[in-house]
Amino acid sequence: MSCDTYARPDPVNAPCAVLRKLRKDANTVIDKAPEASILERQVWNSSDLCCSAFCKEPTVCIQCNVPLDALVSLVHTNMWEKENKIWCDGLFGSKGLHCDGWPEDFGDYFLSPIKSKWFPAQGSSEILNVYAYGGAAHCANGVHRLLGGMVVLLKEFGDKAFLNQVNVTYHPLKVGAAEILDLALKENLKVESNGDFIRLRRLIGPFATYDARNKDALVECSPRDVKLAEKVEEKWKRMPREVIEKLLKNDWLHSQLLPAGGLTLEPVLETS
Questions:
Q1: Is 70 exceeded by the pLDDT of residue 266?
Q2: How many helices (H) and strands (E) does the chain have?
């Protein structure tokens, strides 16, 4: 396997020892993966998605395990240069991770429960925060450390790796959202939102037909509202198929929310 977006540079050319090791370990993870590694998957800027259109306001904040497989988006993508962003590009691109001020043992932060611990690096601020929209995980704070930690965890545990006991704000799916998204997957419909409406776009040859929904109630719109929705084309955001699949796959979180899941729930600590 290989990270094709960039020709992966020799790790010895990295500007600091920590980054040199991270790049070397990332090469190992990618090359040894039986299929495409998580590091070779696409990642999105959360502002380019419309996950919140299908979800309620947050109902709970807990500390729980987050599978790396569930991560789909980031609060910023400053370390990526190209429109189609692949995780490993943030390590090997010219604007990528620099690791300045990171201790050589930074990986210990990820190999033990993270909870509300601050990252042990100069200039690092706040705790690692994740938002879960359904089962799709979004990094709301700590993008740089997350990328480094993914390499550490994937090398140690493979694609089953998870962030250990991190702060998660959970936005459950709205009533009816799962049925709409499941239909979109089964019938290969394009899912889009402009903030006020959701629409399912069905391509028939060169033409498209629309099934518009009101974002707040997920009910079918009137013909007048459908026409209104179609007039604001530039504001529509699409939902990639990969993200829809993660939205629907929320068993990793539900198993921890339920007492039967064996997790002792802890409140998120207030930080100054």
A1: no
A2: 7, 11
